[in-house]
Amino acid sequence: MVPAALHFLLKVPSALSLRASLRRSLHRSSQGYPVCNSQSSKNYEAIRQQYRSEVPEYFNFASDVLDRWTEMEKEGKRPKNPALWWVNGDGEEVRWSFEELGVLSRKVANILSDACGLQRGDRVILILPRVPEWWLVNVACMRTGTVLIPGTQQLTAKDILHRLQKSKAKCIITDDSVAPGVDSVGPECQSLKFKLLVSKGHREGWLNLKELLKHASSDHRCLPTKHQEPMAIYFTSGTTGSPKMTEHSHSSYGIGLTFSGSYKFRSLRHCVSAGEPINPEVMGEWKEHTGLDIYEGYGQTETVLVCGNFKGMKIKPGSMGKPCPGYDVKIIDETSNILPPGKEGDIAIRVKPTRPFCLFTCYTDEPEKTEATIRGNFYVTGDRGIMDEDGYFWFVGRADDVINSAGYRIGPFEVESALVEHPAVVEAAVISSPDPIRGEVVKAFVVLTPEYVSHDPEKMMNELQDHVRKVTAPYKYPRKMEFVQQLPKTISGKIRRNELRQKEWKKA
Q1: pTM, rounded to two decimals
Q2: Which CATH architecture has domain 403-506?
Q3: How many CB atoms lie within 10 A of CB 447?
Q4: Tell me: the pLDDT tens digits for 437-466?
């Protein structure tokens, strides 16, 4: 998932141009910026060694990059490319230059400051589909120093209520499809002062963004923001509990993503993935049909990219690659000792003596949870993994998801991957289930393909158990199995294993 504040980079010149612009237009000052040579270099170790993580005291993506690009275009120092080119399914089209994006985003900035009375540090929830106004609000929040909290339109009224109450947002911006849900919970949110509607119509109690844009001034001076000031808050996917508010700064996303940003391409050449590990069978199918490898990456809402299979690296199917420049990643034990290759432990990032600037700032208003992520000199991701002899990292599972059966530690992902390799299985989720002898055993929830739904359940279970024994290890096969029509998932599509596990253990 491309982070909200930089999502528009999908439609602007490549991330290489971003890095070059940062170096050219900003490195001229005495303030340092992260420096790395072009990613065209295929030597991963050389890229890591060349990487520098100095950041300036002040940074704002809207003024320091977007506005600078506008100036460079006017001066003839860069080609005039569209900043945003948007087309919907009905043939509507919007194409903005960098100058137009600047003018319109300044108008929205004035709307936030004047019509809505928002000030630096105030929080704004934005729930819109991929319409041009989505990008305008992103940039406008940067200009005003207000903190953006993006959300998907799949949020229910209950989800919206949780986010409004938790964040204490003063303003929410959405469209006609979400507005009724906001109105149904609005009276329970004392901090909510302004509701801004992106619509051609009007709604009682709401300001209309399109109408306000017609009369708003484009004269606005971008607030100078220190690089560690909060820029955005992302609610985590909530796979192991209620979503937490993960705060990112103007540098952690505004600069921290410059190394790992998607190139401009005219035909498909390079494929990346993240979010959930890809099963080796899926990778094989993709390679067979496209001729291209999938370069997997690993990261969190809190971290941006932690490990990746960078261009030019040898791919080990199933591995999440090597550490991203800027991060010192280790596998550690419960007392912060670094484990040798081949030993399973906690995936951790070194934060002492120097905390990486691209790491999230904190869990907003939850200092205890923030502090709980630190173990010794490391930030602990909450995921388990292994590093091999070549320095490649392998995902085992969330720490809470790892199953301890009769002394054997079993990661759910490996079992799920084995199950998905079978032609009968669409997808699977693996959890622990209580057992009087082994303490806990492996249980699989399996969604079958339509062709196999009518098969005898007991025979189907035995066949799948035998399959897992053969492709993994005898002790890893699921001793229990339940066939289901669908699996519980977060809004972002991740399987909620904790929900399945809680229900399973309540039966005991």
Answers
A1: 0.59
A2: 2-Layer Sandwich (3.30)
A3: 18
A4: 999 999 999 999 999 999 999 999 999 999
